[in-house]
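Sample A.
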Amino acid sequence: MIIIENRCFETDVSSVLIKTKRVIKGFLGCTYNSIYKKSSLSILMCSNFLNQTKDSRLNKVLEEHSFERSMSYLDWDYHLSSKRTALKILKRIQSVKGKTSNHLIKSSDKYALDILGWKGYALWLYVYSALNQEFKESWIPPNYFGKVVVPQLKRNYGNIADCNSLTSRLFKSALFPDYVYYVNGLWLSTEYQVLTKKEVLEMINKKSDRFVYKIDNSLQGKRVHIIENNKFDIEKLQMLGNGVLQNYINQHLFLKAIMPNSVATSRITSVINNNGIISVRACFLWVSGSSDTHVRSISNISILVNFSTGLLEKYGYTTGFIQIESHPDTSFVFENKEIPNFTNCIDTVHTLHKTVPLTRSVGWDMIIDLNNNVKVMEWKSRQY
């Protein structure tokens, strides 16, 4: 069960609100060296285990002074799931690095209570401390990030990216591989022209041999379907629900050397501060294993990327937070390998985020294709 023996707000409400704003301000204005490079796992877990609900009850929490009294069933379920994941990962890390010291546990507990306001946030701090063998202030547990930071930054505007068909209208960019949309029983072109099934099939036959169909609100590689042209069944596709049909992208040879069976994506996270300045806060290269057709959260490998240079860091991390220096299936060594055309990726992120400033932080899935061109597979704003 979730740890709730300790009251969430033992200090006065104004003090907690100030600390919450301080954490959010830190997220918008932190530097790469201060958080992400020294503690890559904080943002890694934000990438893998972010909020999947639509609203925040922070104000109610502050008013009632009690976390457990304000927690709805969805809140309980969310934090319980987060706790189970954290404990499972902590157990794996400790099997390799040994039991976490009491000093690190106490530091995590104190920080969770004094700064974040609830001891239940300490579990992910245990994970980060166990992996790094030290405790660092400014780490943001994913359940705090998802339940406090994200709702305060975005409100309902974070849900916009869940609707794939809005992408072409918002960005008006050829960088996205979107081909046709299926929305509420209608097939639509990227210009929102209504298409008949016959017209869709004719368009399919003129294009590539392979397509990707992504259902709206697809997360962590789920509800993504790789479709061969000769097996295209429009009736079955409609039964999957609203989504986007994208052209399959042939990735750059550099990325293919890491894993040829699926397309690797660079997840770049950008934020916009209170002065309207956009900056990149983290980047990971996500690659799959040999048994996957696309990158999935349950089996991916996340490799930290220095977003100033595009160079891969020494370690990649499995979903169990196990550090590896090379890909287990291809033996590709990560350290100091440079992602091609990476500067253009960063420039593209800045340009695109200016189009949607109403969502303060965005995760962009970028790909470099076979011709060294930048492509944007998707953008996620609800949980980043």
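Sample B.
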Amino acid sequence: MSSRSEASAISSSRTRPSSAALAGSLDDGSGLGLTVLKTRFVLICVALAVLSIAASARLSWPGTLMAVVVAAIAGWVTSAAISRTLREQIEATNRIAEGDLRARAPTFAPAELGRLGRALNHLAERQAAQIGALTSNRNELGAVLDSVADGLLATDSSDQIAHLNPEAARMFDAPRDAVGRPFWEVVRDVTVSDLMNQVKNDGRPAEGALVLAHVSPRRDLEVRISPKGDPATGWGGAVLIFRDVTRLHRLEAVRRDFVANVSHEMKTPLTSIQGYVETLQSGALEDPEVAKEFLEKIDRNSKNLGYLVSDLLVLSRVEAGGIQVEAEPFGAFTVVSEATAMCADKAREKGLSLHVSPGPRDALVRGDRDLLVRALVNLLDNAIQYTKSGGKIDVGLAKHDSRAEVTVKDTGIGIPPNELERVFERFYRVDKARSRALGGTGLGLAIVKHVAERHGGSIRVVSEEGKGSAFTLSLPLAS
């Protein structure tokens, strides 16, 4: 799985085939012995030639003997030097053949041996440069493959794994020694096996989809398999690319649900309006009391549509990051004061007691003041809607460490424990019939959650069914 280890393997494999033969021929000492034997034969011939010259020149025997001794010593020294140089060059050549490209042959030698040493050194330098370039290219390619967001798996002609990038290893929870194993031991999926057989038979790329049900959470993948090499020369393996489309499928499901919910929420008041209008057109308009009642219902349903559209626009703005951060931090208490002032009349009309606890004036926050006010108004509207007449709503501001926390506590109907995790979902209602009757859009708490998260904060709820709920909006203090 490591690109660098593969590069070193390439290095050795590139050098060994030719070098092994070279090393084998050079390990045999017969060549060197023959060379030395030839050199010494030449020395004997030289000595005989000296004797012949001495005889023809009628030199004395002492002079002749001296000439022969000098010639023999000179020849022996020259032979020993040549032998030593050859041994050193053979040793350097064997080291190069074994992969030690830093080895160098001696070049301070007679002309032919010196040229041989320089040629061997040049060969080692060229080979080192080529292997270095191959290693660099392999490392670069390995880094690119390892950084690809998709899972990539390559197999050889025997369908064993030749390469596996980290993303593919993570997708299939592959062991560290996955390289060299049959690919079906790692990719345990019938769809992939069938696609691989199809690629083998057709010689063309194939695509498919699979579900990893054995991992948690379940993952949806798309796979494309392409053959390696030329199909005409036989099966050379394949490249498998896996793309994780789990999030894409989830977003697509959310989009479908959202469109279905919006359509349903808009269809209900529109159907009511259409029904009342048709009734009025068919004669009910002549009855003042009936006409007034129907017109009031039409007005109420049209307002509900307006609230729904308004909430959808706010939610879209928040999700798109459309937050206007004010240059100067502002007091969290100003947000509380403005929101409670906007909801005071509505609470009083329903017979509810709305009490605001004074909070610290130095709790400063930074962000979009209008959106924060809207979020708190949504919490207060939610409390007012689900609290019966005579109930109480308390709004408190506190400062904890580096956060400002606004809590809206009511004595309403409460939320069942199994519903708490879903109350911040779009269009989710604990009591659907009651919510629609009161004009709720089902988006109020979803907007609160998104506004809080966009400001680096959070929203949490504590509730007891039949006794009430407490929603706490937590925001980071301005530094």
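B remarks: The first strand starts at residue 151 and ends at 155. Residues 1-32 have pLDDT under 50 and may be disordered.
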